Structures are given as structure tokens and as C-alpha cells.
Amino acid sequence: MPIDVLSVTHLPSAGVPTAHGPAGLPWRALVTVSDGRCAVQAEAVALEAFGTDRKAALAHAVGWAALDLEARRQDRSLAAHLAALLGRANGQDAIETSALLGGADDATVVRAARAARMAGYGTFKVKVGASGDASRSSAAIVADTVARVGAVLEVLPKDGRLRLDANQAWTLEQMAAVTRALMPWQDRIAWLEDPCVPGTSGQAMLDASPIDLAPDERCQDPDALDAWLVHPRTAALVIKPGLWGPTRALELARLALHHGLPVAASSAYEGPAGLAVVAAFAAAAGRPGMAHGLLDGPRSVGPRITPPRGLPTVTPCVT
Fold it and tell me: Which CATH superfamily is domain 95-305 in?
């Protein structure tokens, strides 16, 4: 059924610093799409440093809206529709989420860890890479990372799982040194996410790390995942459905399912309309017990959520 784009409304930018610096401030827009029966809103997010420009972001938003409208015509939720496209019976009724422990210094991160533990989270994520790290000494990177990870683990529950994210900040040598230093906590670290600078071989990273790794940013490159899909050190694929669009996100999910790898869905600075897509995708592609990274601005959305039936509606659907 043909669809029409009724409006595009720019949204305020909000983000957090990453190893890419200004990449933490995305361009965002709310796109209203109709198939003649009803109109829904999807969110476009452009993050140029991660390979998504505004034109692509708008196309991705329209693509997610089209899938939501198709799900409504079939009288099922977006999560159930995406699960069917992945060859799965149904989407999960509820998903677990991880807590992002933000902060510019270790003390702030530790306070966030205590608060997240009290809120009932079981999976926690910490940023460990920073802009300019690749020009620092491996010894300095190791010292900073070990200090932060050790301080956080002291206040987390013994069964809590910690995810580390270096946002492609380190050289291969730095990553190898850090992961060796983290070995005493191997059982408490779920994975280290995309640790090395762009252009670093995935095979080399996986072979050099004694702890599990997970690709995130590099999932956008169709040729970058061959080693990740079959290596025993790959913990999961981290997929940003809003940022990469339905075609790539579903392709990645199919690859993960085919190779027996878990999928961890991740948001990319979206508001409610964008988070509805991420939650539906997580419910469709994720495993029970896998925590997904959903943030409402700087806040984690809660340790367990029920995905909405679909995108926000602008007009009532005509049955």
C-alpha cells in the first residue's frame, strides 16, 4: 500500500560525549507517515561520525514507519511483525535493559552504579574510551581502565554483569594490554564493545583479546563482520536499529541468529518514537535474559520494560 510523508519536524539535539567528541550531538527529526488508514510518527537520527547522514536517517525513519503501518494492517504489534520477518514465532512481551553508568570521573560513575543497583538493574555499561586515547601510552590507558572497572565492580552485585564500551578509541596494542589487565574480572565482564580505532582488523582484535568482545559501530560495514560471526570470543552483535535502518538492522539480526549469536539492541539518542522502534526490535530479535541499551536522553529507561504496540499515532487507525 502506498505511503505518504506528511511532515518532517526538527527536534532538539541531545547526546553524550563519546570517543568521537562532537558525535554525541546528533541531528534529529520527527517524521509523520500515513498509509491512508492512519498516520504514525518515526524518528530520524543522523550521526555523521558513525556513518549516518540526514538523508539516510530520514529514509530509515520512513522505513520503520512503513513496517509499523504494515503491522497494523495485519493487526499485530511491531515486535510481532519484526519477529515474523526474522522467522521467529513471536516477540517477547517484556525486555530487560542495561544501565549506562555515566560520568566524567570515577566517583561519579560509582555513584551511578550504586543508584542503578538500587533501581534493580542487573546489567551495567561503562564507557572506558576517550577522544585522544590512541595517542596515549598503553600503561596510562590500562591504569585508568583498571581503576574505573575495579571501583564499579566493588559496588555492583556479585551476579551483576558489566559491559565496557571503548567507542573505537584504542589501538590494537592498547586493547591487548587492557584486556590482559582485566582478566582477574573476566567472569564479571560480559564484553568489551568495539575497542579499536576504525580500520583495525576484527580478526586481530578477537585473536588478541582474552576477554569477550562485541562489535557495534563496525556492524554498519557489510564486509567487517566475517571474523566476528564465527570467532569464539564474540559475545553478541550490538545493533542500533534506529541509526542503521530496518534493512541493515534486520540483515544483522538474521546473521546473528544464523550463527547462534545474541543480539543486543541499542538506542542512539532517540526520543519516544525512536525508542519504540528499538524496544520492538529488541523484543523481536533478542533472547530472554539479554539486556538491551535503551536511553531516554541520558537516563536508562528502567531495568525491565514492555515494548509499546507500535509507533506513536497521529490519527486514529481506520479498521
Answer: Enolase-like C-terminal domain (3.20.20.120)
